[in-house]
Amino acid sequence: MIRDLVIVGSGPAGYTAAIYASRAQLNPVQYEGSVTAGGALMTTTEVENFPGFVDGVMGPVLMEDMRKQAARFGTELITDDVVEMDLKGDVKTIKDGSGNVVQARAVILATGSAYKHIGLANEDRLSGRGVSWCATCDGFFFRDQTIAVVGGGDSAVEEATFLTKFASKVVLIHRRDSLRASKIMADRALNNPKIEMLWNTEVVDILGAEKVSGLALKNTVTGELSERDFTGLFVAIGHIPRSELLIGQIDLDNEGYVKVDGRSTRTNLSGVFACGDLVDHTYRQAITAAGSGCQAALDAEKFLAH
Amino acid sequence: MATSKVTAANFDEVVLKSSTPVLVDFWAEWCGPCRAIGPILEDISNEYGDKLKIVKLNTDEESSIAIKYGVTSIPMLNVYVNGEVVKTIIGAKPKPALLKELEAFI
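ok -> structure tokens follow
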């Protein structure tokens, strides 16, 4: 059987695409991902800026509700990973981690992004041994300790603020002299007595034999090197698009984001649409991802009607 | 067989003195990636439970054990053979990747 539509990915973009596509009776199959279902919001805490939620909403709750809404209109949800895609030609073939194959006339790609690593040799070695990318998962284990967060955007500031619930002190390390984060979140961090800012500073090495014991730091203005003791390092320096399965078959830009045609979600391949963080360098919000997921469903619906 | 719960009270008996290898899943209710791999570990336990016993340790309720084994990141999966940690897997991974990491035990 050849389906109308497969949706790959399940953050706000994927679920919104599924809600629209299933309401339009396209009977979509959605691959949610075996351990990534729900996407980046699954490891956040409170989302305060998603319109309609006056008092905020927990990220995982918002995603669970979007999922239910997609299921309500008949989206077939599969909690597995896509491991192979052949997107050229009129019939697209998608293979999952259990070896099942689905064919469809149209595909919506909404695989989002993954955490960026600093790129230090000791980062992987000490990962899970003091180096973490998930404050909500791991903050608890750093009770009454002095820890570092590296980054200057919304996620770094959110993580630093969240971590003050556990840590005795959180040092936010940023390579510039001001934060990129939204003003309300930046002010919250700057006014938090448990957060110390370390401006114009880069992490050049992570120290520790069995677990993190400190960081080697470099001042980006003076070039001065120093070392400081920490028991944990939370990395929040941004994201990279999860486009590794697409390399060689779809047009990507030089940072790996899927290229789309103008304001649409059309890729260079007929019948293949992309949305959410996979295409977005700029905005990267839950609401913009949801909006582009809606666009992708409408673009796919129009394509399938021809 | 299904996974079972382990506590500080029976950790010695269930894990350290077990005659078969035991995988301990260090997890917590509030950890999204822990919840994501829960069903995968149930599957693996149902398929391979006779060779590799899978038990779950709640790090909120049993923090003394979590501290003893140096847990700083969850989900963390430790495999114990004859009371020693012989393998540590950190972070949520898809089922095929977990099976590959555990192939020596199943």
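Chain B touches chain A at residues 28, 30-34, 36-37, 39-40, 59-60, 66, 70-74, 76, 88, 90-96 (CB under 8 Å).
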